[in-house]
């Protein structure tokens, strides 16, 4: 499929990319991810490299999402982000339910670029057992009361069910479900019905958002780039969550495992712009303001919480 060049792709609608990762493989201590054996990903992923790729495509800001369970990497990302106004916020890595959680949250929350945390199926953690622990729920309530959000990671049907249970207990929590396009629905019909019912239940909750990220799939060794291949899943999310709670995320540089950034963006741009400019504007930046309450740092960025 022929793609327009960068200049043609840059549209009048500004784009906030709500899912990129930052890391520097040259650090003396290394990085917990990606693996050194990964020939595509194991290289520095820093704002200047991202800017060169993204800015010509009409992207005016990005939100960094954690890629490390190391506590001090929260500070490292904040320090790196402070130097480049392209980064409008970060989603860190802290563990609700741990004795040190509130002290750590207070430390990082003082920085207006710190927007929330990610928790889910990563770093050998599983949210399911935590839901029965009062301290975990209490800490998530503290997170929500501080106007911070929670991203999930690596969705499964069990994680979707857990998010129903979590938002039952913390109804004011702003929740962003990452990479839902990569979830493989259950083959068992009974399990499929439960998963679909849980997804529809989350669709009724106005504080729950879905990040349209990791859309591309590899099928028989190739990655289809025709939007019609992905349309059934995108239509499902559209039908359940509607135009006000879907947001754009590239998953850069992890997205390079599937296709170059322009192709990743082109596919979702084709889908959402076909629904009209108002919908595209919500998808590419307006909904992200509600989900993340990110900060505007540059005159070229649309309205956020200015600092």
Spans with pLDDT under 50 lasting ≥5 residues? 1-10
Report the mean per-residue pLDDT as an integer. Answer: 94
Taken as a percent bin, the fraction of beta residues is 5-15%
Major sheet summary line: 8 strands, parallel
Percentage of residues in helical conformation = 25-40%
Strand order of the largest sheet: 1-2-3-4-5-6-7-8
CATH fold topology: TIM Barrel
Which structural category do the helix and sheet elements fall into? alpha/beta
**What gross morphology would you assign?**
globular
N/C terminus separation: 42 Å
Question: What is the CATH architecture assignment?
Answer: Alpha-Beta Barrel
CATH class: Alpha Beta
Order of helices and strands: HEHEHEHEHHEHEHEHEHH
Rounded to the nearest angstrom, the radius of gyration is 18 Å
Determine the number of helices (DSSP H or I, runs of at least 4 residues). Answer: 11
Number of domains: 1
The overall strand count is: 8
Would you give an account of this structure?
Strands 1-2-3-4-5-6-7-8 form an eight-stranded parallel sheet. It is globular. The protein starts with 5 loop residues before the first helix and ends in a 15-residue tail after the last helix. Helix 7 (157-169) runs parallel beside helix 8. The chain has 307 residues and is α/β, with parallel strands linked by helices. The protein has one domain (6-292): Metal-dependent hydrolases (TIM Barrel). It has helices at 6-9, 47-54, 71-82, 101-109, 127-130, 134-145, 157-169, 189-203, 227-241, 261-273, 277-292; strands at 15-20, 59-65, 87-92, 114-118, 149-151, 174-177, 208-212, 246-248.
């Amino acid at each position: 499929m022929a793609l327009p060049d960068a200049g043609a792709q840059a549209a009048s609608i500004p784009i906030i990319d709500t899912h990129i990762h930052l890391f520097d493989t040259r650090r003396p201590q290394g990085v917990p991810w990606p693996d050194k054996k990964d020939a595509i990903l194991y290289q520095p992923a820093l704002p200047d490299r991202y800017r060169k790729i993204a800015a010509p495509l009409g992207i005016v800001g990005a939100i960094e999402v954690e890629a490390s369970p190391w506590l001090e990497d929260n500070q490292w990302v904040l320090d790196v982000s402070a130097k480049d106004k392209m980064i409008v916020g970060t989603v860190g890595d802290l563990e609700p339910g741990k004795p040190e959680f509130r002290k750590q949250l207070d430390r990082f929350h003082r920085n207006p670029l710190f927007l929330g945390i990610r928790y889910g199926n990563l770093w050998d953690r599983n949210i399911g057992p935590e839901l029965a622990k009062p301290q975990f729920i209490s800490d998530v309530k503290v997170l929500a009361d501080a106007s911070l959000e929670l991203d999930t990671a690596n969705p499964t049907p069990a994680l979707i069910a857990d998010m129903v249970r979590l938002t039952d207990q913390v109804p004011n929590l702003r929740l962003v479900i990452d990479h839902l396009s990569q979830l493989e629905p259950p083959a068992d019909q009974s399990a499929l019905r439960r998963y679909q019912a849980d997804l529809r239940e989350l669709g009724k909750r106005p504080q729950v958002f879905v990040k349209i990220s990791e859309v591309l799939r590899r099928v028989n060794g190739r990655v289809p780039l025709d939007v019609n291949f992905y349309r059934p899943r995108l239509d499902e999310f559209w039908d359940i969550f509607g135009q006000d709670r879907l947001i754009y995320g590239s998953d850069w540089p992890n997205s390079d495992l599937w296709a170059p950034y322009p192709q990743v963006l082109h596919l979702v741009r084709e889908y959402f712009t076909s629904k009209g400019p108002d919908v595209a504007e919500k998808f590419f930046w307006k909904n992200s303001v509600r989900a993340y309450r990110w900060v505007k740092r540059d005159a070229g960025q649309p309205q956020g919480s200015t600092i």
